[in-house]
Design a protein that fits this description.
Pfam families: NTP_transf_9 (PF04248). With 113 residues, the chain is mainly beta. The N and C termini lie far apart (36 Å). The chain is globular and about 40 Å long. Strand 7 and strand 8 form a beta hairpin. The chain has a single domain, classed as Domain of unknown function (DUF427) (Metal Binding Protein, Guanine Nucleotide Exchange Factor, Chain A, Beta Complex). It has a seven-stranded antiparallel β-sheet, with no helix packed on it. The chain has a three-stranded antiparallel β-sheet with strand order 3-2-10, with no helix packed on it. The chain contains no helices and ten strands.
């Protein structure tokens, strides 16, 4: 049985920081909950400083959401490889996250302000 996936607006203002520097801030974030996994915040690409992101060749496949592609973050402190992922053309169950970006919390700070 496939885990239930819910996509809903993430209320408030959300910020993603790299080594203390703001990489993006949005009031249009989406919260994605998949089964028993922790909620993941997705940021609209238009609210992220894309000049600091570099596409990588990495891809992964989720049987529910589809194929994810990755970006590394080029920061003053160094490169954070594959720290960001996106689903450009997700499966129907997650169609609302198309083009949004998610970040690994182990590599960046994601906070609601």
């Amino acid at each position: 049985m496939a885990p239930q996936i819910t996509v809903s607006p993430a209320e408030g203002t959300w910020v993603v920081r790299v080594a203390g520097a703001v990489l993006g801030e949005t009031t249009q974030a989406l919260a994605v909950k998949e089964g028993d996994n922790p909620e993941v915040i997705y940021f609209p690409r238009s609210d992220i400083a894309m000049a600091f992101l570099e596409p990588t060749d990495t891809t992964t496949t989720c049987p529910h959401k589809g194929t994810a592609t990755y970006f590394s973050i080029e920061a003053k402190s160094g490169t954070l490889t594959d720290a960001v992922w996106t689903y450009e053309t997700p499966n129907d169950v997650a169609k609302d996250i198309a083009g949004y970006l998610a970040f690994y919390g182990e590599k960046v700070a994601i906070e609601q302000v």
